[in-house]
Each structure stands twice: as C-alpha cells, then as structure tokens.
Amino acid sequence: MMNVFLDAGHGGKNPGALGNGLREKDIALSVTLKVGEILKRHNIEVIYSRTTEDRGIKAANFAVLRQSNMPSDLVELAFITNVEDSKILRKKQDELDLASI
Predict the structure, then answer these.
(1) Whole-number Å distance between alpha carbons of 27 and 93
(2) 42-71 pLDDT, tens per residue?
(3) What angle do CA 100, 96, 69 make, to 5 degrees?
(4) Which residues does the UniProt record annotate as the domain MurNAc-LAA (predicted)?
C-alpha cells in the first residue's frame, strides 16, 4: 500500500496569511483533510502533520521539499488577500477540482 504524508502547514499561533476575514491555517487544514479523504478512497494510507488546531509553532524552511527523500510537492491554492480568491476559499472548497490529484 502506498503512503502519503500531508502537512497542512501553519497552525497554532502561526495563522499564515490573513485577508478578507480568513486565516490561511484554517483553509490549509480544511483542504488538506479533503485531499486526505480523496486519497483514502483510492486505497492510499494517509498520515497527517495535524488534523486539528493543537499543532504549535514549528520552525521550517520548506524542509518538506528540501530534505525529503521521497517525491514532495508544496501546494498553494490561491491568494487569501485577493477578494475574489477569498470568496472561493470561503464558500467553494468542495467545488475545487481536487479529484484530479
């Protein structure tokens, strides 16, 4: 069975970008959990860095990309500070084409 590690990033006291009433950490966690469910439906074992908000602050310099000994990808969805993007992130996450992953 294939394993995939999903890191939602941010969390705890680190909200990531802020804009239009949204916090990046909330969007990242929500989308990460949705991606995890899609992967599980394809018989892929999913391991998460966090599934809730008790993460705390982690120091990082994109080590998930630099130091990984497996294929890695860093996904950025939209600009939370852009009014139109924030509307999509707030209300249309289920309409994002995550099925193509």
Answers:
(1) 9
(2) 999 998 988 888 754 444 566 666 777 877
(3) 50
(4) 2-101
From CA 33, how far away is CA 55, in angstroms rounded? Answer: 15
Give the angle subtended at the CA of 73 by the CAs of 70 and 74, to the nearest 5°.
140
SS3 92: coil
Kindly report each contact of residues 82-88 with a partner whose C-beta sits within 8 Å and lies 24 or more positions away, as own/partner: 82/19, 82/20, 83/20, 86/19, 86/20, 86/21, 86/22, 87/20
The length of the chain in residues reads: 101
How many C-beta neighbours within 10 Å does residue 88 have?
A: 15
State pTM to two decimals. 0.71
